[in-house]
Write a structure and sequence with these properties.
alpha+beta, single chain, 5 helices, flat, 257 residues, 14 strands
C-alpha cells in the first residue's frame, strides 16, 4: 500500500511529502456508557415484571431495544470509519486517502471541501468533537474523512490551508477580471455579495458571523440577514471567507476615504 500511495502522489505531482495520519485509538468511553445503559434497562425490566408492575417492565424493555439498536448502529459506523479511512497522507499539493485496497488522490488546486464540525461541549478543546470533511478526488468522486483518523483538528486545518493557498490567487485574479465566483448557494463579485437572485453591495454588508456552525450574512439597516445557512453546505468556505473579508475591508476603507 505504501508503494501505491507514493506512486499515486508522484503521478498526480503532489510534490513534497508532509506527514501521515492513521486511524486513531478506539474510544472506550462510549461502549462503556452504552453497556451501563443496557444494564440499567435490563434491571428496570426485570424488577418491573418481578414485582408485578408491567408498565415499569415495558419501559425497561423499550429502553433495552432502543439502546441495543443504537449500539449496533454505533458499532457498524465506527467499524466503517476505520475501514474506509485507514490512512491519510498529506503532500505539498494534495492528499492521498487510502483504505480497503483503494488509493484516492486529491489535489488542492482543483478540489472542493465541505466541513462539518460538531463540538460535544462548549469547550472547543474537549475530546468527543465530531469531524467530517468531504473533499473531491481527481476523478470527481467525493472522499469522506471523519474523526476516525487521528488528530482531525490538525489535518482538517492543514487540508483547508492547502486549498486556500492553491486556490486563492486564481480566485482573486478572476474577481479582478470582473468574473463572478460561485460558492453555492452564495456567490460574489468584486462589487457585491449575493444568494440566488438577490445581491447586496459590499459597502452594505455588516459582517459575516459564524455561530454554532451557521453562517449569517448581516446587512446594514436590515433586521433579516441576506443569508443564513450551515457551513457544511458551502464549498470551500475557507476561500470564500478570505475573499469576502478582503472585499468587505476594501469597501469599508473606500467609503471612509
Amino acid at each position: 500500500m505504501t508503494q501505491a500511495i507514493g506512486e499515486a502522489a508522484e503521478r498526480e505531482q503532489l510534490g513534497r511529502y508532509r506527514r501521515t495520519y492513521r486511524p486513531g485509538p478506539a474510544d472506550v468511553r462510549r461502549p462503556l456508557a452504552e453497556a451501563v445503559v443496557l444494564a440499567a434497562a435490563i434491571m428496570v425490566a426485570a424488577i418491573g415484571f418481578v414485582v408485578g408492575v408491567p408498565a415499569m417492565g415495558v419501559v425497561g424493555v423499550v429502553a433495552l431495544l432502543a439502546g441495543g439498536a443504537w449500539s449496533l448502529w454505533d458499532l457498524s459506523r465506527s467499524g466503517a470509519v476505520h475501514r474506509r479511512e485507514s490512512r491519510l497522507d498529506l503532500y505539498e499539493h494534495g492528499v492521498v486517502a487510502s483504505g480497503e485496497g483503494q488509493v484516492r488522490v486529491v489535489r488542492y488546486d482543483s478540489t472542493t471541501v465541505r466541513r462539518k464540525i460538531v463540538h460535544a461541549t462548549k469547550d472547543a478543546a474537549a475530546d468527543g468533537d465530531s469531524y467530517r470533511y468531504t473533499i473531491v478526488d481527481t476523478d470527481g468522486a467525493p472522499v469522506v474523512l471523519r474523526h476516525g483518523i487521528e488528530c482531525p483538528r490538525q489535518w482538517g486545518v492543514e487540508i483547508e490551508q492547502g486549498i486556500l493557498q492553491a486556490q486563492l490567487p486564481t480566485a482573486q485574479a478572476a474577481l479582478d477580471a470582473g468574473k463572478r465566483l460561485d460558492f453555492a448557494p452564495m456567490w460574489l463579485t468584486a462589487r457585491e455579495l449575493g444568494t440566488g437572485s438577490e445581491s447586496v453591495p459590499w459597502s452594505q454588508i455588516g459582517d459575516l458571523a459564524v455561530v454554532g456552525g451557521w453562517l449569517s450574512v448581516r446587512v446594514r439597516g436590515r433586521a433579516q440577514p441576506l443569508e443564513s445557512l450551515p457551513l457544511c453546505l458551502m464549498p470551500n468556505y475557507v476561500v470564500f471567507r478570505a475573499l469576502a473579508e478582503r472585499l468587505h475591508a476594501t469597501s469599508v476603507s473606500g467609503a471612509a476615504g
